[in-house]
Fold:
Amino acid sequence: MFTGIVEETGRVVQFEKKFLAGWRLCVEARLVREGTLEGDSIAVDGCCLTVVDLGESRLTFDVLEETRRLTHFSRLHPGSPVNLERSLRFDGKVGGHFVTGHIDGIGRIEVIEKRGNDTYLSVQAPPGSGRYLVPKGSIAIDGISLTVAEVDGDAFAVWLIPHTLEVTNLRHYRAGDSVNLEFDLLGKYVEKLLPAHSV
Structure:
């Protein structure tokens, strides 16, 4: 479990196919590396991955082909910036919202532009996902906990403060780029439970 508060932006060192059903991802990290052990969970652009090897300033993960297919990981290459967050500790703060690290789909950036002091970001989500989008509700974009400002069908918009751009990889994105999306967990549970009570 995570909170969607990115701790640092790491850099992909290597991402290549290593075994029949998967890939090996190596990421340069400093802050997130501290206190991390093999077997720990780290959110990489919002996707929960298990640390399989540690270097002095690097974390290595195995990525299944299925994970690569269902996320925007297929576009990662050496030098790609990725958002990193260690899993939530019981004595930690929940500064964002509860994020599982299980990506629901890939969104496409339609607009990202500065408006005044802040930045407006509009994303086209996968077909049918608009049912999980609520104005003033929560959304995780590449693992970043954000507040939905506008909803138009399967598209939505958020506002980014300068700090968010400074500490995450969103500052590198342009219109047309893909992002990992995780919708609010509560909405998904409500959808699952409602049919059982409507009979």
